Amino acid sequence: MLIFFKNRLNRSFFISFIFLIFIGCTKVDPVSGEKVLNETDQSKRAADKAKEGGGIFANISKDKSSNTYDFATSNILWRATLKNLNFLPLINADYSGGIIIYDWYSENLNSNEQIKVTVKFLNNEIRANSLEITSHKKLCDENNKCFISKLNDNFSNEIKDKILSEARIMKIEEAKNKKD
After folding, report:
1. What is the C-alpha to C-alpha distance for residues 85 and 104, in angstroms, rounded to an integer?
2. Same domain assignment for residues 48 and 95
3. Measured in whole angstroms, how far is the alpha carbon of residue 11 from the centre of its chain?
4. Tell me: the pLDDT tens digits for 110-137?
5. By CB neighbour count within 10 A (0-12 exposed, 13-18 middle, 19+ buried), where does 154 fall?
6. Does 48 share its domain with 75?
7. Does 91 fall in a domain?
8. How confident is the model at residue 12 (pLDDT cuts 50, 70, 90)?
9. Is it the case that residue 91 has pLDDT exceeding 90?
10. Phi, psi (rounded to 5 degrees) for 28
C-alpha cells in the first residue's frame, strides 16, 4: 500500500477520488445558489421517492387522461411573461401551443405609433434560448396609411431579460415557500 502512495500520480488520483466522493454528497441549487444535501442512506432515499410518487415507473397510477392545465401554478416562464407584459392587450394565449400574442399597443390614445409583441415558448427552463420574442412597430400618417416594421433585436432582448429576471425571482420565492 505504501508503494502505491509513493507514485505522485496515484496519490493525486486517490485524493481526487476522495474529494469527488465528498462533493457528490452535496450539490448547489442553480437557481437559489443554496447548498442541497443528498441523503446518503439508501432506504431513506427510497422512502422519500416513494412519498413523492417517483420510482422506476414514475406516477403510472395517476390519471393522465386529463388535458386541463392549472395556469396559476404552471410554467414559471409563462407566469413571468403574463406578469411583465400585463399592460399590453392580449389577443391570444395558447398554453398548449406555447405562444402568447399581444395586440397593438400605444401609450397615448391619439398616438400614430404602436407596438405589438409575440412570445413563443421553446422550452420550460429558465434560459435565454427558452423564449423567442418578436416585436413589431406600426407607424400611421395623418391619412391613416400605416407602415409596419419589425423592431430591432435590442427591444425584444430587453423584454426577454425582464421576463427571465422575473422568472428567476419567482422560482427563488417558490423554493423558499416550499421550505417553510
Report:
1. 13
2. no
3. 42
4. 788 999 999 999 888 888 888 999 999 9
5. exposed
6. no
7. yes
8. confident
9. yes
10. -110, 130
In a domain, 33, yes or no: yes
Please check whether residue 31 lies inside any domain of the structure: yes
Listed residue (76, 100, 90) closest to 165, CA to CA: 76
- Full-model pTM: 0.58
Q: Same domain, yes or no, for 75 and 154?
A: yes
Task: Read off the pLDDT of residues 47-80 as tens digits, 9 standing for 90 and up.
Answer: 776 676 655 555 555 544 444 444 444 688 999 9
pLDDT reported for residue 65: 45
- Number of domains the chain is built from: 2
In a domain, 115, yes or no: yes
The answer to whether the beta carbons of residues 83 and 71 sit under 8 Å apart is no
Q: What gap in Å lies between CA 93 and CA 69, rounded to an integer?
A: 13
